[in-house]
Amino acid sequence: MGGGNAAFGLTAIILVTVATAVIGAYGVRFSRTTSDFYVASRSVSPWWNASAIGGEYLSAASFLGIAGLVLAFGVDMLWFPVGYTAGYLVLLVLVAAPLRRSGAYTLPDFAEARLESVHVRRISSVLVVLIGWVYLIPQFLGAGLTLRTVTGAPAWLGGLVVAVVVVANVVAGGMRSITFVQAFQYWVKVTAIAIPVFFILVAWHAAGRPALTADEKPRFQDKTTVQVEDAVTLTLAEPMTLDIDGRRTVLLPGEHKLAAGTLVVFPAGAEVPSTDRLEAVSNETWAQPFGVREHPLYTTYSLVLATFLGTMGLPHVLVRFYTNPDGRAARRTTLVVLCLLGLFYLFPTVYGALGRLYAPDLLFTGQTDAVVLVLPGRLVPGLAGDLLFALVTAGAFAAFLSTSSGLTVSVTGVLSQDVLPGGVRSFRIATLLAVAVPFALATAAAGLAVANVVGLAFAVAASSFCPLLVLGIWWRRLTAHGAAAGLLVGGGLATSAVIVTVAVGPGEGWAGALLAQPAAWTVPAAFLIMILVSLATPRAIAPNVARTMVRLHTPESVNVDRGDWRPRG
To answer: What secondary structure, in 3-state letters, does 127-166 show?
Structure first.
């Protein structure tokens, strides 16, 4: 695929991995109690915690996926970073402070404390594990893509490296340890994605600022050699002359299959053909809102709903708010997170847009997620390009490590409390299970777009925990029966859509759109079911709901019992 010196990229991966292990080992010195492992003894300051949240939140989807989606599908994909960031506004207004005041360790803890129901806790536990596993899959996929881009290694190897480092850090020090790691990795990622943008724009300006011609498809500016890694079918509207495996070949209009391993040489000026993986749309369509996908208005609204509301339902995000000293600190943390995310998301769009000029081969292979990795080396020659390639490689691996750490802690916390007996030893055993399952699934599901998979995780979170948190915090009449029914309906419908989309593809037409972006119908369904069933079962309101609501909404300056909600076991 090209894009930089493999030795530089491999060195960057080794350095960021070693730094992660060393910083994690430093955090072990402060991990002594169960509270240290689960919530860092609720002593993390807002600035430090915000950096850690930014570190774990900016995942493979943010570092690689957004630029790849912009490259392939255009400006409509900018709703992803908008939603990822704006979701924290909803979190700030509705959830952050009350959730911290609950004293819970995990989302299932909160569910049981608020509704006084073991059944709701068990349903919540299953959903936490499911969301965490779905979200971990693209981290391993992205790590595999990065290591393969750098060294040509098998795709599973990158995921294995991330899995081993994450397990070591989490087993050794839990939340206390990964807080140091994630805060460090946020600043690695911002530096890694921002500095190359400056050089890329300088090189683009020096080349005369070439523009995307509106009525044309992307073209290869120079003679380009592409190796087909997986069998592909390309579709031509006009004849095209190519060198295929060293033989000059004229391809007539129609479909043509190329086997895995085929070497294709595109002449300078050739249009990028559409394939069965990705349609090469014109630049005009790419630049227009609602220009690429079927049923674009529905898809956009559903995506916005999933990202805005899904943030507050992501277990690995919420668990970090339990680490703040109090509700006021949780609000301040959220404000800082908004600033940190806004800073980062300024940059991926540049990679996606200029990738259509300088990395059109990624549209042909379908590996658009690699544009952040390959673009600096193509625009900046020599040693400077190699160093920039190493920098973005380090940032990408930091993204996989930090997000995987947060997800692993959130899933491990639930498994250790609700499946195993509890305590530090169970926490460590659960860590292995939390990582092993999604790693196996990622190995079997190679080739998925990382941002799309993350978007599906957001849809499940928005359809399950968002209604539970909003109604549980702000509506005292929510009952255990209503919460359980809503979690099962909303979470079940969204999960079914995820399984169908990942396993067989979303398909075409309205059915495909509804499955690919389910939040627009699964979120209202979950809210409606929770409300209707709760109204129909008024006698099932938690006996101590009045005391719980006072605890959630009373400022810390008022003397209210705020002891931790003790995990079972």
So the answer is: HHHHHHHHHHHHHHHHHHHHHHHHHCCCHHHHHHHHHHHH
Q: How much is the average pLDDT of 31-49?
A: 60
Instruction: Please give the Cα distance from 279 to 366 (Å, whole number).
Output: 9
CA–CA separation, 526 vs 530, rounded Å? Answer: 6
Distance CA 20, CA 503 (A): 34
Query: For the purposes of burial, counting CB atoms within 10 Å of the CB of 494, is it exposed (0-12), middle (13-18) or buried (19 or more)?
Result: buried
**Beta-bridge partners for 251:** 240
Instruction: Find all residues with CB under 8 Å of 198, minimum gap 6, and list them.
Output: none
Dihedral (CA of 244, 249, 250, 255) sign: negative
- 487: which DSSP letter? I
Query: Taking the domains of the chain in order of start, what are their residue ranges?
Result: 6-209+284-553, 224-270
| Per-residue H/E/C for 450-486 | HHHHHHHHHHHHHHHHHHHHHHHHHCCCCCHHHHHHH
Among 246-250, 473-477, 534-538, the least confident range: 246-250
* Residue whose pair of structure tokens reads 């947060």 in the numeric block: 406
Beta strands in 39-97 (DSSP E): none
Alpha-carbon distance of 133 to 436, in angstroms, equals 10
- Put simply, whether the predicted model's pTM sits higher than 0.70 gets the answer yes
3-state secondary structure of 205: helix
**What is the tens place of the pLDDT at every residue in 380-429?**
988 999 999 999 999 988 888 888 877 887 888 788 878 777 676 787 78
Q: b/e per residue, 263-278, with b = 16+ CB within 10 A? A: ebbbeeebbbbbbebb
Are residues 162 and 143 in contact, defined by beta-carbon separation less than 8 angstroms? yes
Q: Residue range 221-233: average pLDDT?
A: 85
Question: By C-alpha distance, which of 480, 355, 412 is closest to 129?
Answer: 412
First to last CA, the chain: 51
Residue 364 gets which letter from DSSP?
H
290: left (phi over 0), alpha (psi -120 to 50) or beta: left
To 5 degrees, how large is the angle CA 495–CA 496–CA 498?
Answer: 65
DSSP code, position 248: E
Write down the H helix ranges in 152-255: 155-206
Mind listing the pLDDT tens digit for each residue in 462-509? Answer: 999 999 999 999 999 999 999 999 999 999 999 898 888 777 766 678
Nearest to 315 by CA among 104, 530, 65: 104
pLDDT value of residue 36:
52
Distance between CA atoms of residues 252 and 265, nearest Å: 16
pLDDT of amino acid 567: 47
Residue 16 in tokens: 């960021």
**Phi, psi torsion values for 271, nearest 5 degrees:** -70, 150
Listed residue (492, 495, 476, 487) closest to 530, CA to CA: 487
Phi, psi for 247 (deg, rounded to 5): -115, 130
The overall average pLDDT reported for the chain is 83
Partners of 235 in beta bridges: 255, 274
Domain 6-209+284-553, classified CATH 3.30.200.20, yes or no:
no
Phi and psi dihedrals of 548, rounded to 5? -65, -45
Q: Are 135 and 436 in contact (CB under 8 A)?
A: no
